[in-house]
Each structure stands twice: as C-alpha cells, then as structure tokens.
Amino acid sequence: MASFQKLPQPGDLIEINRGKIQHWGVYIGDNAIVHLTTDAEKNGLSTNGIVRMDKMSEVVGTDECRVNNLLDDTYKPRSPDAIVSDAKRQVGQKPTYNLLHRNCEHFVTDLRYGKSISRQVQRAIKAVGEAVKASPVLH
Questions:
Q1: How confident is the model at residue 131 (pLDDT cuts 50, 70, 90)?
Q2: Is 3 inside any structural domain?
Q3: Which range marks the domain in which residue 38 is found?
Q4: Domain for residue 62, yes or no?
Q5: Residue 100 pLDDT level (bands cut at 50, 70, 90)
Q6: In 10 A of CB 32, how many CB atoms?
Q7: How many structural domains compose the chain?
Q8: What's this model's pTM, rounded to 2 decimal places?
Q9: Structural domain contains residue 90
C-alpha cells in the first residue's frame, strides 16, 4: 500500500497525483478503492466510464497519494457504512464520463457528501475566466 501520513479509513477520499491532474477514489477497506475511470484510449470531454473496485496499490502504482476529505469543513460527510455500501453497489455500472460534469472527483464527492463537486474543474474554469479578462484581444 502507498505510504500515508494518515492511514485511510473506510469512506475516506483518496487523491492520487497524476501530475497536472488528480485521480480520485473512495477507500472501502482491505486496501481497496472504488473509482470512476474511463477507456484510456478515448480522448475528449465525454466518453464511456466504468465504476471499478481495485486494489489501491494497483491504481496508485508509483504515484503519490493521500487521504483528502476536501469538503469536510463545508459539508457533513455521510456515514462510512453508507459511503462504502453505495460505492460497492455502483461497481460495474457504466455511466457517461464527462470531464466537466461527471469525472472521478464528482463521483467520490457525491458518495461522501451527497454533492457532486469537482474542485479541479472549478479551478480550471476560474483560470480560464481570469485569462479571458487579462487578454486584450478577447475584450
């Protein structure tokens, strides 16, 4: 298993650093996570997704990862039992994956908080908005 400053507990969100982006899963115990992933061969905003349950070590590989319950200060987390049960129930489902509206971070925040939120998308939209404001050509 990856090395953690804080050992994951069932229901915790796991953030995996993939360089410029992060992949997210929810820890369900026994070194396993449930996560929304895609067919890696496809490019674009929307594609086929699949909810998988995998050993965390297989998903993390050599990347850095951490427990990051990023919205605990804003929203009350659901109970660990409910999070784990709902995560396991979704394994094998094939929702449409959409980078802006239904990505892996949306998936895990919905499980933990009942709110589908992606801070990665929020930061990207903010950065684009600031770039547009700063560009003399686009005014």
A1: very low
A2: no
A3: 13-134
A4: yes
A5: confident
A6: 20
A7: 1
A8: 0.81
A9: yes
**CATH number for the domain including 37?**
3.90.1720.10
**Active-site position among 65, 101, 104, 106:** 104
Catalytic residue among 35, 65, 106, 139: 35
Task: With beta carbons less than 8 A apart as the criterion, state whether 84 and 10 touch.
Answer: yes
65-84 confidence digits (pLDDT tens): 999 999 999 999 999 999 99
Q: How far apart are CA 135 and CA 114, in angstroms?
A: 38
Q: Is pLDDT of 136 > 50?
A: yes
23 is catalytic: yes
> Is residue 129 predicted with pLDDT exceeding 80?
no
**Would you state the structure tokens that stand for residue 87, as one six-digit string?**
């995560």
Percentage of the chain modeled with pLDDT above 70? 78
Distance CA 83, CA 61 (A): 24
In a domain, 5, yes or no: no
104 in active site: yes
101 carries an active-site annotation: no
Q: Where are the alpha helices (DSSP H) in the chain?
A: 56-60, 80-90, 104-113, 119-134
Measured at the alpha carbon of residue 23, what is the angle toward residues 38 and 45, in degrees to the nearest 5? 45
